[in-house]
Amino acid sequence: MSKSKQKNNDNKIEEFYENKIIKILIIGEVGVGKSNFIYRYIEDKFSPTILASVGFDSNTKVLNYENKKIIVQLWDSAGQSMYRTITKKLFNRVQGIIILYDITDLNSFLSVENWIQLIEEENKKIIYEIAGNKCDLNELRKVNINQGKELGSKYRINFFETSAKKNININESVNSLIMKILESDDLEYNPTFSIDKRSLKVRTKDSNERCC
Ligand code: GDP
Ligand code: MG
Asked: Which domains does the chain have, with CATH numbers?
């Protein structure tokens, strides 16, 4: 690459970090833990009661990458089917989506494919992944971890089991989606660069890599 081209590229990267906010929407049925997932990621807190979708102060967190900032915003949504049309509209306003289900609630898992269909109908370019939440409740489990993995493989997307309560894989699942967004070829989000995954990982608050 020529020097001027390189410089131009560096400027682009600079600009990306200065100006871009990575917006990620959390979807899934009522009660799967969407609001608590966000609460944990943003504020490192958990609420044993159901949280209102806007029940906390902020949905934004700044990750440091070297001297630059990555601003991450997690958008909450309502799971009720009457709100689906509204939720669907949001698919075009974010760069990533996490579809959450509850490992103790088979129906919430079965509806993941409906959510995937909605996503595919609305925005084929969007990057998304699946997370089976409440993996701390292993004794109440109704969805085997392999079922989640198989669904992930079927759609070639990442799959995690998470617990907002015990803070398991919350950062990992969000950060992995961020990495994919950053690595995507879509120029709107990403010029031609890749990011050192380890750096991002080291600098996030926890690195809880326990598996369910
Ligand atoms: P939402 O309707 O998807 O936003 O779900 P909420 O975040 O309001 O959570 C619904 C209920 O599940 C609340 O009682 C939470 O405390 C509980 N909950 C959420 N995440 C977890 C988790 O990881 N483990 C357990 N045991 N409970 C959770
Ligand atoms: Mg909620």
From this structure: 3-193 (3.40.50.300)
